[in-house]
Amino acid sequence: xxxxxxxxxxxxxxxxxxxxxxxxxxxxxxxxxxxxxxxxxxxxxxxxxxxxxxxxxxxxxxxxxxxxxxxxxxxxxxxxxxxxxxxxxxxxxxxxxxxxxxxxxxxxxxxxxxxxxxxxxxxxxxxxxxxxxxxxxxxxxxxxxxxxxxxxxxxxxxxxxxxxxxxxxxxxxxxxxxxxxxxxxxxxxxxxxxxxxxxxxxxxxxxxxxxxxxxxxxxxxxxxxxxxxxxxxxxxxxxxxxxxxxxxxxxxxxxxxxxxxxxxxxxxxxxxxxxxxxxxxxxxxxxxxxxxxxxxxxxxxxxxxxxxxxxxxxxxxxxxxxxxxxxxxxxxxxxxxxxxxxxxxxxxxxxxxxxxxxxxxxxxxxxxxxxxxxxxxxxxxxxxxxxxxxxxxxxxxxxxxxxxxxxxxxxxxxxxxxxxxxxxxxxxxxxxxxxxxxxxxxxxxxxxxxxxxxxxxxxxxxxxxxxxxxxxxxxxxxxxxxxxxxxxxxxxxxxxxxxxxxxxxxxxxxxxxxxxxxxxxxxxxxxxxxxxxxxxxxxxxxxxxxxxxxxxxxxxxxxxxxxxxxxxxxxxxxxxxxxxxxxxxxxxxxxxxxxxxxxxxxxxxxxxxxxxxxxxxxxxxxxxxxxxxxxxxxxxxxxxxxxxxxxxxxxxxxxxxxxxxxxxxxxxxxxxxxxxxxxxxxxxxxxxxxxxxxxxxxxxxxxxxxxxxxxxxxxxxxxxxxxxxxxxxxxxxxxxxxxxxxxxxxxxxxxxxxxxxxxxxxxxxxxxxxxxxxxxxxxxxxxxxxxxxxxxxxxxxxxxxxxxxxxxxxxxxxxxxxxxxxxxxxxxxxxxxxxxxx
Length: 838
Fold this sequence. Notes:
The chain is built from 23 helices and 26 strands.
């Protein structure tokens, strides 16, 4: 029995190798078909692989640490949480209305670490953004992370040189130490080992470098922007606005590594008991509090999933392109199968069974698909580089490692097998149904095959492509609408840059002097028209909001309203090109010693003070009261997509704490970026330890605010063109094959007096009806799927008839053009030549 099985396996392998050799010979004999098919498959598989590579890097790849399956991200969950001081990871909400997030008070971390059961390590971290670093007479701003003393032990990574942070370093009174990344070591120390022991300043605080992480080190945060790690005990020096011992400040994120053979349910239950104890002594309240242990093998998924959402949408779109590719290849294989009927009839006549013919056809399809996948991997490398380059050009310090790993190779291999089966199964069954008696007759008997299935596949390609074209049309029109939105100010010839005096140890008075000196010196640069300051740049994505009451409003004196807030200098409105509708601008006399004043926009007046003269009205924010002295025109605040919000502008000179960061807006008659060298020189002369950051133009800020819409419009437009090209190839191939197989018939008709027009028009008409069938069938599908992209659109409804009708009309025109070349070839058939073919 065993011998028979071995013999059967041997024979199967022999026949498989025979099929492979035969398939390769057939492709060598017909290189044109093979090149076209492989190119189509490479495009379809390659673009899917590129999107999946980025998605894999963001969401699916396990962290490069020992035993990542042991890691757990600790999150809380509860109903109706009441928090006054939440500063951490974004919150999510379940379908049942429960809120969840991954940020805790520091005492909760300490309790989990000391008393939690079932864990080998419980470690914590908190990202530090826009930290000012000074090393070797060089200042820069970058991102870091505060970590607990057992972070690297729990995470499972060591340093390349030096040592990691230990619990001894993470105690109040310990000498401040820092571990830097390989990137930072290379950029600022030229890989010099003597960097160990040197001092670097972080926000004017000295830290001793004790270690350098390996080059392949990957952090927890998606995109891994972190360049240095410091102990949590340094929190008072770096982020003093949320004390370590406070139970009402929620900011620290916690992960854990399960102990060997630990019971995860029991470990979770122990943390829930400790969590409720923390809530009992805190002013923060929530109903039904509980703890969630989330798989941490890929880092904190709440943050990664938010980054991956647009990538899932793109993967769905390119999946549609793959279906069009499969339909295209299937139609090509069907046409090729009809031309091989005589060959298949001979093979059947000499004993080949139906399964043998199906296997041969599927083997050839698999060869095509695997070759297309191999070429597609090359195309994917270029595509994902372009995609990441697009992201990185708008997002600083983004480090996404989208390398081709085992996950990507498995995805590509699975995709190629799926494509081979989907595109080759129907042609294989069609080829295997050959009649040997009919097939061995004269070839003229097969002169005009009906090819119903091939025509249906071409119509399916047109329909699927129409879905992409309509979606791309909606996205492009949406992006055009956003691009034409008036931001409410003039973004041209406006340079932005940020200086942070607070992180360099300046007090309020010294900050005022520093910013004033910089402003005066920049204003003296030839070509500069005006300079203004603000604590946030418009359309930068940042926001500051506050609740206000209007005690002077007799109808609703105690009503609370939500408004955006911006601290600005005098001449801010004239520098940005905003109009003052009523009242006056801020002036240098609006100081801390004078009464507090505010300027509000028209939306503020229309929303909160309708029918009332706003000048002189009181606005109360907390216990602080301002007097409205002016009304300005509306301007977009956080991004272009949102409605213009009610906004209150306050005088920077009257800000209670001035020792912080400020943006400079510089209006110039020169190209804005040409001013940067002169501004760098000015700042370095005044204080070389304060780096200039976030240098851009206001126009670039505007473009960044619609980067997702630009990305979707660009990619969807490219994919729609690709889908249309594939449909044209399929339609052209079918019509060209029809003309070739009907050459004798056309010759006879021409000999009997048919005009060229009489021969060409039926071919064009057939192509038109095939395209029309695909359009008609997919119009209802397009309407049904349109609501899925509603959240991506702006200024246009998903059921826009103009886009749908325009896309359908475009496809019908393209179908006619695709059929015109074969039809023209048919109209030029020489009757004598065609008759000699008989």
